[in-house]
Amino acid sequence: MRWEHWLYTVPLRLRSVLFRRDVERELDEELQFHLERKIEEFTAQGLSPAEAREAAIRSMDGLEQRKEECRDARRVRLADDTLQDLRYGLRVLRGTPGFTAVAIATIALAIGANAVAFAAFYSVVLRPLNVPRAESLYSVHRTGDGSGNQSYPDYLDFRDRNRSFEELAAYSIVQAGLDAGDAPSRAWVMTASGNYFDVLGIQPYAGRFFHASDERGPNSAPYVVLSHAYWRNRFHGDRGAIGSVVQVNKHPFTVIGVAPPEFTGTLLFFSPDFFVPMVNQEQMAAAEALSDRSLRSVFLTLGHLKRGVTTQQAAADLNSIGADLERTYPKEHGPSTFALARPSLYGDFMGRPVRAFLTALLLLAGLILLAACANLGSLFAARAADRAREVALRIALGAGRGRILRQLLTEAMLISLAGGALGLWGSIALLGWLRAWSPFPQFPVNVPLAPGPAVYAVALLLALASGLLFGAAPIRQILRTDAYDVIKSGARSTQERRITGRDLLVAAQIAICALLVTSSLVAVRGLARSMSSNFGFHPGNALLVETSLEMAGYHGDSAPAMQKRMIEEIGKLPGVSAAGLVDVPPLFNGDVRTASIFHDDADDLRPANAALRPAIYRVSPDYFRAARTALIAGRDFTWHDDSRAPHVAVVNPEFARRMFGGADRALGRHYKLRDGRRIQVIGLVEEGKYQSLTENPKPAMFVPLLQSPSSQTTMVARAQGDPGALAPAIRSELRRLDPGLPSFIQTWNEGLSLVLFPSRVSAAALGILGAIGAMLSLTGIFGLAAYSVSRRLRELGIRIALGGSPRVVLAAALGRAVRVLAFGSVAGLFLGILATQVLASIVYQATPRDPLVMAGVVVSMLLLGIVATWIPAQRALSVDPLRLLRED
Amino acid sequence: MSRPNDLVQGTLDLLLLKILALEPLNGWAISQRLKQVSGDVLQVSDGSLYPALHKLEQEGWITAEWKASENNRRAKFYSLTRLGRRQLRKETESWTRLSQAITQVVRLEEA
Questions:
Q1: Which residues of B26-36 are buried (b: 16+ CB within 10 A; e: fewer)?
Q2: Which of A70, A77, A80 to mutate to test the interface with B (most CBs of B within 10 A)?
Q3: Confidence category of residue B111, pLDDT binned at 50, 70, 90
Q4: Interface test with B, best of A9, A22, A30, A58 (most B CBs within 10 A)
């Protein structure tokens, strides 16, 4: 029935559109045939040929109208007209290549920025984790700090006693040395509970995964599952690697399988090199990771919620287990409550700032698009005014205003789609580059930004919407066109109003751009300032030497001896002025260890009674000298502060204030650790930054490495000159001490990259957006100036003919553009000051009230104004009055 | 005044379909046939014929073919399609129903 209808009509419609010329010819021929018969008939009735012809045409009741009716019958009017508009639009746009290029570039920049921002937002915030049934996958986090860590015994309790999860898996992240028969190398390891892969429901790419049934007590499952990428890079994709035995931290492990390529763990940004069962955790991290209830060695627990269980119900379930654990193990447990979150960004801990940043980016990109639309809207309005005569002529010839608007809109759409395609292409290239970018050489961090159908769809929608938006700018103008008036006296007769909608558009756009320029300058300045602020140590010309004694098989007493030898030997190297060890340097990867401490007179040493939880640093003698942390009072540690000597500590002023009520009252006083050890304060060092650049003063204590040993240490080596030149000497010295010792050397400034990453990324993003904003205001001002010059060419010609000075001519030509620029810039700067709070949340120490930033904005906008008005100004000054007056 | 006032709207379609059901014809021949069968009662202007034919063609009820006419000139001949026959049946039925109803109404005796 229906299909039969289509069978006839579809080919006809296609033919009407695609072979319009043939169809038209046939129409002519058909009517011609009729006319000829009619003429014959009339001639036979005795009319002269001319009379017969006239009568025949008259009998058709208006030949052309009949033809139009026949065309209407084809039902492809819209497609037909659109094609005609497209052809005409392309011709017009080709006729003004400069305008077309500027317009396409403008919209391409804006769409590109939006595509990148949306792709980032989509891949990080909107897209679920790439595992089956990701919608019911949740991780367990502490309310309060949002951290997800647990002790292993606690994890087992939660796993076995909860009634909300189908199954609860756990994982941690550690570094380990892997030796596959060649040189040992450092690798990032995910230690996972046996049920990890089964909980996620993924299948191996090759070989097998480990399972809960493999777990038979500590160190019972020496298996390695390689990530696909690591298998490709380290094992050259060799299937023979499966089944082979490798050394992990000098322990034999069997490679049993390879994970699928799309699976890179359950933490976005972070792809581990391989997976080992968590029951073998102690071979990785050497502590009593599996038995100590006070050691939160599990990084995150996660699982699928049972059908019908809400996150609130699950949290209540976990809280009741937590409360029970607190009652049972008061010495190890503080009070804690839990909430469920998404595992991909470690819940809100990382998720909140990342989401906030990406949302801000999306908003700024939206502003860019708005600015671009305002910009193009004003350009299109100016163009429509220039074409007033053409429009008036078409109206006079009977074209409907709707038809003319549609034609102009088609032009706008052509521009916006071309620009959209170009922008999307650029953004795909940029995303590819970002994906390949690995911001921290020592971390397997990647940026999972993939353009996909969603991104393409958004780019297309934005292009269409912005085409409609700026294409609609000249509507009012067209609707008000009085054909008679325009044709009689030209477009110039319309009254020049004081402020036009066009001026407002440009001013709004300049304001947005000035706001973007302000924010980018603020960001760059904030970054520069945060680099030069006081960290409590001096990262310049110092090296961080990370050695993994654990991976090289140093345990127990052999570690301190090796540490002492390293300090002595490296401290003796020429060019090294001081060397010291610290377990984890401050501001290093945002990683801070804390310890509960108690007043000297406290007896009940349970976590809930802790007086303070300061950051704790285990350091060797000379660490303060190597880090250039100033000692305010008291003394530094010596090698005599060992396990046999009285326990001592050096604290910072915040610690002294909070614990003893004043910086000057700390020296000589005692406090207690959780294991009951009494510690005497022997020194006071300057305040510093420990976890992040933006933190408030934090209490910190430093204890001698010999009194609380740690096999994980980083050496700080202070160079006399260029620290980079020192690295090879240190590396060869380490190799001389122990060839099997994996090491990683970087400058301390490089070591700060993770902590500085947020401000760097936001400075870069804001910088790029600011540059785009500057470019947009450039084209916007250029458009306005060029338009106002071309519109007043005749007036300028008369001024020059009458002997007007260049100053007068320029004032007449560009005064309006300059006023709009000034107004917009001031508004933008003002908006920037209003947005201080928002900016300060993204960028450290950001304030637009900084005189340098203010001056920077003013100078930038001024320069942009000069550049943008340069060409129109030249054109205004070179007006040849004679030619101009003759022409019109 | 393209459509004759006395021609009920839509009836032209029925007439054209009916004429073409008898044999394929070109536009000129159709106009002659219309005059011939209806005398002067149904006046269809030459002008309104072609848009009506094109509309029927686009509906898929008639199909066109270029053939030599009686005096060996190329002309566009229209013929009925399967869909057209069905449409003709439908329109004939509704026309019959309508005209019977109107006839009955007209024949009502005035009291």
A1: bbbbbbebbee
A2: A70
A3: low
A4: A30
* Phi, psi dihedral angles at A226 (to 5 degrees): -85, 145
Q: How many CB atoms lie within 10 A of CB A814?
A: 22
Residue in B31, B50, B60 nearest the CB of A9: B60
pLDDT per position as a tens digit, A495-544: 455 567 777 878 888 888 888 888 888 877 777 777 677 888 998 889 99
> Using CB atoms, which residue from B47, B54, B55 is nearest to A61?
B47
A275-326 tens-digit pLDDT? 999 999 888 766 677 888 877 888 899 999 999 999 999 999 999 999 998 8
How is residue B86 written in tokens? 């069905």
- pLDDT tens digits for range A621-676: 999 999 999 999 999 999 999 888 999 999 999 999 999 988 888 899 999 988 88
- Cα dihedral B85, B87, B90, B92 sign: negative
Residue A775: HSE in the Cβ half-sphere, 13 Å Cα cutoff: 18
Q: Do B1 and A29 touch (CB under 8 A)?
A: no
**Which residue from A4, A34, A70 is facing B54, i.e. has the nearest CB?**
A70
**Candidates B45, B50, B60; nearest CB to A31:** B50
For residue A169, give every residue at least 6 positions away whose Cβ sits within 8 Å of its Cβ, in sequence order, or none. A192, A193, A195, A196, A199, A200, A301, A302, A303
Cα–Cα distance for residue pair A313/A339, rounded to 1 Å:
10
Q: What is the pLDDT of residue B9?
A: 56
Yes or no: domain B4-106 corresponds to CATH 1.10.10.10: yes
**Interface ipTM > 0.85:** yes
A26 CB neighbours in chain B (<8 A) are 66, 76
Which residue is closest to B2 within chain A, CA to CA? A61
Contact: A30, B58; criterion CB under 8 Å: no
Please report residues of B whose CB lies closer than 8 A to that of A72: 51
Helix (H) or strand (E) holding A185: strand A185-192
